[in-house]
């Protein structure tokens, strides 16, 4: 059977060998890339071992230097013997040789491959591609690529640090804080002797007398001192919720032209159920009302509880009850007519004036009825005020529907310490024997 030649045979070009060479070159490149990655992984591991050996070698060197000193005491015992020291020296030499060998093994370049064509590093955009193209050990290659990526991240991205803890501001103790006006007063320069005698409350009430005028103030009728904190002689301030009218309004004739009820007044402070004479004080600045922040941060809770109990007490003074009623239950305002025809007018009133007069009379009568009803309801509500109601008013907002309650400062400046007055009280109390002991 004859063979037929293909007319296109003259154009035939063999390509099998070329394709085979390309495949061989590709596999060689893949192998070199894999070897580079393995060498980088081994290089990183050797670097870690070198660091650990350096630390161990450094500690051993320090130990050897100490042992070589002539004045170093060698203690032979269960934990350190001559054989142990010799073994430590041999271990130090062994580790030194091992460290030198590891350095020589780690320092050669990764270019020293079998064929000299290996690259020093793999670009980041080819690492995944190289890992997927190696068919002989894909798991090992992926682990190497992951190791390289993690090392790069550790170098470029520092470990996150937690945010700093917020600073906790501890409110200052009320004892260490003073109202601003008190800090502006000059200290009392008078001489205060060591006065360790205290006075029984009944003794002061019996000998000095007086009537309770406002919280912390007793007014003594007659031309004499009236009894209105910190050691004696120190400036201070006391708190109060309401003010009674001034004693001068009711006993104006008892005061001299140059005297009043708020200057150079003896002050006694109750300490352990007995009174201590602190000196003579004056109120040189009128009172200031505290705001909510000062009430919450500077006024101790025991002071708030004291005032809540005092204001809610059924035995409180009548003027205190009246002040509570006016504060918490506001009196209604008059909104009626204010115009009427004059009574002494000689001309005949016009019709319009008569209408205005009649309207004003009706509005006044209506307002009086409202006041009567308000007074009856306000008295009942005031009698039902409890301690918790006062505490809630201390914490209420200034814009709440129920009125908030704030305390007032009464500034007290020490102006004198009367030794003759103090000695007189001590003498009078001694005469009573054990009655006021």
Write the layout of secondary structure elements.
Layout: H1 16-68, H2 82-106, H3 124-133, H4 138-156, H5 180-183, H6 201-208, E1 211-214, E2 217-219, E3 236-240, H7 247-250, E4 265-271, E5 274-282, E6 288-289, H8 292-297, H9 301-312, H10 318-328, H11 351-383, H12 387-395, E7 408-416, H13 419-431
Antiparallel strand pairs: 1-2, 3-7, 4-5, 5-7, 6-7
Summarize the structure.
With 437 residues, the protein is α+β, with helices and mostly antiparallel strands.
N-to-C order of helices and strands = HHHHHHEEEHEEEHHHHHEH
Oligomeric state of the chains?
A: single chain
Shape: elongated
Report mean pLDDT, rounded to a whole number. Answer: 72
Domain DUF6697: 199-427
Region (Disordered): 106-176
Protein name: DUF6697 domain-containing protein
Pfam family, one: DUF6697
Describe what this molecule looks like in 3D.
- Residues 199-427 form the DUF6697 domain.
- Residues 106-176 are annotated as: Disordered.
- It is a single chain.
- By secondary structure, the protein is an alpha+beta fold.
- Among the domains are: 180-290 and 407-435, no CATH class; 301-338 and 353-406, no CATH class.
- The protein is 47% helix and 9% strand.
- It contains 13 helices and 7 strands.
- It has helices at 16-68, 82-106, 124-133, 138-156, 180-183, 201-208, 247-250, 292-297, 301-312, 318-328, 351-383, 387-395, 419-431, and strands at 211-214, 217-219, 236-240, 265-271, 274-282, 288-289, 408-416.
- The strands form 2 sheets. Strands 3, 4, 5, 6 and 7 form a 5-stranded antiparallel sheet that branches.
- A hairpin with a 2-residue loop joins strand 1 (211-214) and strand 2 (217-219).
- Helix 3 packs antiparallel against helix 4 and helix 10 crosses helix 11.
- The longest helix is centred in the first third of the chain and has 53 residues, at 16-68.
- The radius of gyration is 50 Å and the shape is elongated.
- The model is unreliable at 109-121, 137-156 and 221-229 (pLDDT under 50).
